[in-house]
## 1
Amino acid sequence: MSEEYSPEISQDLRERANYVRYAFFEDIDQNLLRIENKFIENGLNVLWAPDESSLCSHIFNLLPKKSHNKVCFDVDRIPDELSADPSLVKVCTPLSVANRETEAETLVVNADFAVAEDGSLLFADRPSKNCFNLVNNVIVIVNIDQILVNCSDISLIMKLKSKSQSYFPADVKVLSKSFTKIVADNFATSESVGFREDPVNVSVILYENGISDILQDISLRESLYCIHCGRCMEVCPVAKSSTSISPIQIIKNNCLDQYNKTLSIFSQTTLCGMCQEVCPVMIPLTELLVYEMGFVNNNSSKFKDKKIFSIFSKRSMLNKMNSSFFRFFWTKALYGKNKNLYTYFKNNKSTFYNLENEDIIDKDSDSSLDTNGIF
Ligand code: SF4
């Protein structure tokens, strides 16, 4: 396990967190209705966005001016549509706004979580934490898989999301309604105080973004339990050596139509199982990767010929033959073009695979080690 996450997470905590996530998805329709009602009760403007284009049009409509809007973005990815035309939207960074180098009218920020029980919005260690008091409008994007059912779930999930030794984010903001900001009053008189309160409007966009597609596949549903703690990426040898994509992103990307269930999944994982070991909400990441490989394998003549999935499925045998000789050939065949990853596996002394559930693996595959077309 990575040293950065040295505090061990007990199995009890992991099971509780898994149940918290399960409870939301088990009754997702009711929970979404509940949170929408709570937002409205709290006086927030609520919108739904099924996809990115709808998200962009909502944001455009919520901006105060028709053009020259200065917008501070604290989101996972700024959609191209929003950043393409600087005459419509001038993108500002949270740092420049917080340091008062730029004045922004609007902050667009992802909530880390929202809570269905009372409609509160949670922001943990966001780069924009010092910007809330500096804008007139806050647009909060809530991904619909990042919702908790009860307020009592917050501390557990925040604890597990935190990467710090102290086991809790340094800054957690909880927002449940529009608020006022305190600003200097330039027209203060000797009778009035030197500041005034200005209203800040808060709008919430509930963002679906392909989540329904994943929900429809019962096997992949658990991938939505992710709380974006980053642990799986920290321990993933492929992510460390070659890509900036995490195991959970590989799984989700392959679920979504626009990525077309890519063949590259075979070179994006070694099925070492370390991601699954560290996941605090017990997502069966390795099983899900194997499941998706099976899907790609069944739909790709290229990979049927090469039987890479079949090779992966024979991990027990590979482990038994875990000699440097086999390691050399196996690693060279799959990761020969990536020097870092190749070196990592050549030097690694532990077993390649540690999946416990044998049943999910390709049962029809030949029991002998078939290396035709690979080595
Ligand atoms: S899938 Fe990865 S990022 Fe998501 S909760 Fe598990 S370890 Fe954290």
## 2
Amino acid sequence: MKLAAFAAASLLSLAAAAAEPSGSAQPERGLAAGEAKSKGGQAAAAAQATAVIPVKGMHCGGCVGHVTEAVKKLEGVRSVDTDLDKAQATVVYDAAKVKPEQIVAAIASTGYEPGTPVLKK
Ligand SMILES: [Cu+2]
């Protein structure tokens, strides 16, 4: 009984540590990221980038859906906001996993016309 409770408590604290990798429970991991970025704990966010890509040829919600789905399939893409009125797709992605050129290619593969990506900071 006591052992089981102890094991459960250990699992809980392990889960808590895993949920917060930037926390003090994992100083070794936080250190490397902190050295690289000089503001520790944001290693995951460090590679995040946003690109706004003009898309010509969309004329309805179906078009928006095609573009959005094609971009979402790419590994490393975190979110896609395709705007019909502005004729552009705003893509948040992991720059370590996917390049803007690949996003452009995915849009082109749907039959619409992607323009030059504008990177946001
Ligand atoms: Cu359409």
## 3
Amino acid sequence: MRLHTTTWGKGWGLAAKVLLAGVLGLVLVTGKAEALIVDLDAYVDMAIVQDDLTTPLADGSWVYIVGSGDNINDGLITFGGTNLIADSVLGDDVILARIQIPLNSISNSGTFFVTVPYESDNINYVYIRYFNTNSDPVTGMVRWGTSSMFQLGVTLGVATVQFDQNQQLAATNYNNFVVIPEPSSMNLFVMVAGLLWAMRSRMRLATGSGDGSDEGTPTDP
Ligand SMILES: [Ca+2]
């Protein structure tokens, strides 16, 4: 009887191993079919300049690499009328990377070079958005601009885009940038504050239960 049980145990062990191998194989195969991650080599050759059209953007200035499914730059989210949110996209646009000049380039050159992985199934076009500021996050009155849209052509798993090939890029737009807290984090803050308040009240009730003088009337410290 004991021997019989052991044999069953071995059988199950083998079955489990075969099943696990099958599941792993399936995960590997489907994983390969789904994620077509491609490297984008993104750079500018000529300096991105300030609004005087001469001075390169200072070291530390922000450049966002933005992808899109279609060939339309859908722009930034506006807030309170004319304010813009730097870290925002609309439509099918996706921020692929945020970098600071002169990444992988020489100081005061107003240029950069960066390799950014992206999903080639969803992203067919790419552009850059650049700011004449090193403020993090980008806030206040800031000069900025965007490049043209460039279609991505993948060769041997790499797409290469030089963003200044049709024009010298200049930060000539001038807008006020704001940062608003995300609704989810605001809700979390209110919830945690509420929990702390409830715990404080409860602790006061527990400690004050001896004399019963000021139970349930929490006051500010
Ligand atoms: Ca788009």
## 4
Amino acid sequence: MDRPHRTDIAVRASGLAKAYPGGVLALDRLDCTIGGDEFAVILGPSGAGKSTFLRCINRLIEPTGGRIELQGEDITHVSGRALQRVRGRVGMIFQQFHLSPRLSVLDNVLAGRLRFARRPWWILASILRRFPRSEREIAYGCLERIGIAELAFKRADALSGGQQQRVAIARALAQEPDLILADEPVASLDPASARLVMDTLAQIHQTQGIPVVVNLHQVDLGRTYGQRIIGMARGRMVFDGPPDALDQDAVQRIYGTPPRPGKASPAVPVPTVVAALETARA
Ligand SMILES: Nc1ncnc2c1ncn2[C@@H]1O[C@H](COP(=O)(O)OP(=O)(O)OP(=O)(O)O)[C@@H](O)[C@H]1O
Ligand SMILES: [Mg+2]
């Protein structure tokens, strides 16, 4: 698998705004640049706009103001095939994994290869689950790199939450992404599985050189894994610095009051490439 093309800047948000119908201003002229080699953790209270920010980056939602660039390319208002290409370039990890439960682990990872599909034969191949050998080898290699190759032929719904999330990371890796975004990837997991999943994200950042941005609620995990901490509140950045600089004052600035340890927020369902694949198969 080729190393994806890298640039110094993965993401640049300038004056980024998102007002949802009904008037909620989830992002309030946010300025934020993520470097091409960063492992950044975004912390912030519920409703701060963390998920909205990530979804603007992979354009699951469209900003209502400002500008968002992915590796220097303005993607603020892309649509159609250009939008599909943007989503293909960004690996997205969700709190609830978003795997296809009845499919094998390997088939789930193969869904990450869809961005390289030469239609229409690939669509037919995916429906019949007869992927080319070379693609299956790439998908298997992603599982090996994450250390879960022995799960390749198990059904996704037979796995623990932590295993499922690592499969989701393998699927993102199979996309050969320019960037990985993870929206509360450990909120549904026990502490040991949470660490394993965070270790996996840290490992692919280090070994593959892929920039990673993770939304977290757990300040302690953010301190442990983040090379850079971004604190958000009310749709704006209120802290930006290394984990060492995240003292009590900074935590108070982000949360208002100290957060309760281990707090998890409710998941918000969003469409995924796998869900799209399921729909295509139905
Ligand atoms: N689809 C939507 N329609 C209307 N308002 C929304 C929508 N999605 C999010 N919001 C609102 O936008 C604000 C930011 O939401 P967002 O989900 O980005 O916050 P968050 O920091 O991810 O919170 P959490 O930690 O609870 O996941 C909140 O006030 C939320 O209620
Ligand atoms: Mg959220």
